[in-house]
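Lab channel / #folding
Pinned by the channel admin:
"Please post every new chain as: sequence first, then the structure tokens as a reply. Keep commentary short and put observations after the output so the thread stays searchable."

First post following the new format, from NK:
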Amino acid sequence: MPPRHAPIRVEAEIDMSDIPADFRDRLDLRVVIAEIDRKRAETEKFVAEQRKLIAEAGKLDRDRMLAPWLAIVGLVGGIITVLGALARWKGWGG
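Reply from TO:
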């Protein structure tokens, strides 16, 4: 009884003439690895800069929230100072 499946046919193998003669020059792993390292370092630099900008934005946001309170405290302090000076000038403070 003959086999029911078709025999596996191996197509033509890769001929050495199909590979470019300068493939080793084009595929220099050291250059590829160096490029990857440079891109990683650049990415880390961008991430560090982004973190710095986020921290600076947080500080500016905090300052923006505190500015009205500082203005109010300064105004109240100025009013108290003026009233104290008037009280001493008029002799009300003893």
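NK: The two ends are 128 Å apart (CA to CA).
TO: also worth noting, Helices lie at 23-26, 29-90.
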